[in-house]
Write a structure and sequence with these properties.
The complex is a heterodimer of chains A (263) and B (214). With 263 residues, chain A is mainly α. Chain A is 73% helix and 2% strand. Classes of the chains: A mainly alpha (263), B mainly alpha (214).
């Protein structure tokens, strides 16, 4: 007596299951009943294919965006959570200190020169931004310089650990974003542009694996070099330094970002 | 440069760059991903939920959740597949919730407004559905729609992802939070139930062939 295959086996056969393919195929050539059963299963898929799906329209993606845009969180949780990690508390504290300093200076200048309140407060705010961005650029420059000037071992199979630079780059990306948005809202297109380029390089570093091959390391170095980002960062630092001197009312001795970071 | 990604540029940037920019704080970069993948996610959502309104809600929720979880997205993965899985997960949760609410309510009759019996098993038991009635592809689609509605959320998800979307068993298993063997069985069960639900149609076709009306 001929042994028929079960429905489950036939569904598996139709689905491409490798297990009993040969045996089932051979059996199907001989058995009309199993062929009919398989045909019934096939009809299910034919009927499924006949099920219409409405066309959501060409501009559907745009409509979805309009519906969700206002519901996207303004600041994502991880971003804030990041500030509370031990390594970043120092940075957050420093930024907070700068803001408090700006506020205090603003109050002092308000008391001493009531006739020029608005101008003085504006100058103080700009001075604070200049110091903070200068410091940020100095630290970014250091990370980039360390990577750009490093000469890894010649062994092509030896992995290079860049986890320390990665963590610093990750922290700098978040700061950079704030300063870039600030520059953009103040219409400072040159600063915005440099910070934008810097951010891309920092994101590249932050998103790299912790351990990379010499070839990958060289690729990062080339990216830093090809974008000329170090030079651009130094130019902006010089401009900030000059701007700082003007705000203080006296020109300052020029220092490099690296030197500033060491103080 | 004002931070917004213009449409012409948006069409050119890859998913990976859009993800990177979104993570770097350019919320507008996420628009590129939403506009690019919404229609595909909608097709999946519609097949899973069976109606447009629910499907649209699934699409929106999938992209909202995707934005919130974007840092968990592995850079070398495919964003389309990733958001697709979020949509499938949300759709199945929603379907399960809706089924459980439905079961709490009393259903004295499953007869719908249009008079068609919603239970495909009842359709299967229909002693004499006329060939003319069943020969219509619209009626077949209607019957299939009813049959799909009778599947459990897991069965429906499995058949939609396997048949329409061509997903692998492992991928479906991840959405169902199950193992490969159990997922294969879920697919078999779904096909088997649909086949039984379509039996009256198949029987009618046979009868129509015998009567020379098809």
């Amino acid at each position: 007596m001929m042994k028929h295959f079960t429905e489950e086996e036939l569904i598996g056969y139709r689905d491409g299951e490798p297990g009993k393919r040969k045996a089932i195929a051979s059996h199907l050539r001989e058995c009309a009943q199993c062929r009919e059963d398989l045909q019934r299963i096939e009809e299910v898929f034919v009927a499924l294919n006949a099920m219409p799906v409405p066309d959501p329209g060409e501009d559907y993606g745009r409509r979805v965006w309009l519906q969700i845009e206002s519901r996207l969180p303004e600041k994502r949780a991880r971003w804030w959570a990041g500030w509370f990690s031990v390594g970043r508390l120092a940075t957050a504290g420093a930024l907070a200190a700068i803001v408090i300093l700006a506020f205090t200076l603003g109050r002092i200048s308000k008391r001493t020169a009531p006739e020029s309140d608005v101008a003085a407060a504006g100058q103080v705010r700009e001075r604070v931004l200049v110091i903070a961005v200068g410091d940020h650029l100095g630290r970014s420059e250091m990370v980039l310089m360390e990577l750009a000037n490093a000469r890894p071992a010649q062994d092509k199979n030896k992995l290079i650990n860049i986890s320390a630079e990665q963590k610093r780059a990750e922290s700098l990306v978040e700061e950079n974003r704030l300063y870039r948005q600030s520059a953009w809202s103040q219409g400072d297109s040159a600063m915005n542009s440099t910070l934008d380029e810097l951010e891309r390089v920092l994101v590249d570093i932050a998103n790299s694996p912790e351990e990379i091959t010499p070839a990958q390391f060289e690729a990062i170095q080339k990216r830093i070099e090809s974008r000329g980002i170090l030079l651009k960062v130094r130019v902006v630092q010089e401009e900030l330094h000059d701007r700082g001197g003007t705000l203080d009312g006296a020109p300052k001795e020029k220092r490099t970002g690296t030197e500033r970071s060491k103080t | 440069m004002n931070g917004r990604i213009e449409r012409a540029e948006a069409e050119g940037i890859s998913d990976a760059i859009a993800v990177e920019r979104t993570l770097a704080g350019e919320r507008d970069a996420y628009r590129v991903l939403v506009e690019r993948h919404s229609a595909n996610v909608f097709r999946l959502a519609y097949r899973m939920t069976g109606n447009r309104q629910d499907a649209e809600e699934v699409v929106q929720e999938a992209f909202l959740r995707g934005y919130q979880k974007l840092r968990q997205f592995a850079g070398n993965a495919n964003f389309g597949t990733w958001v697709y899985r979020i949509a499938a997960n949300y759709a199945i949760d929603r379907m399960r919730q809706s089924k459980s609410e439905e079961s709490r309510r009393e259903h004295p009759s499953k007869r719908r407004e249009d008079g068609i019996e919603a239970d495909p098993m009842a359709l299967a038991r229909d002693p004499a559905p006329s060939p003319e009635r069943l020969a219509s592809s619209m009626q077949l689609a209607e019957m299939m729609k009813a049959a799909l509605n009778e599947l459990t959320p897991a069965e429906r998800t499995a058949i939609v992802m396997r048949h329409w979307e061509g997903c692998g068993i492992e991928e479906i298993a991840a959405v169902l939070k199950s193992n490969s063997n159990a997922t294969k069985n879920t697919v078999f069960r779904a096909v088997s139930k649909l086949r039984k639900a379509l039996e009256p149609f198949a029987g009618a076709k046979t009868a129509a062939r015998a009567m020379g009306t098809e």
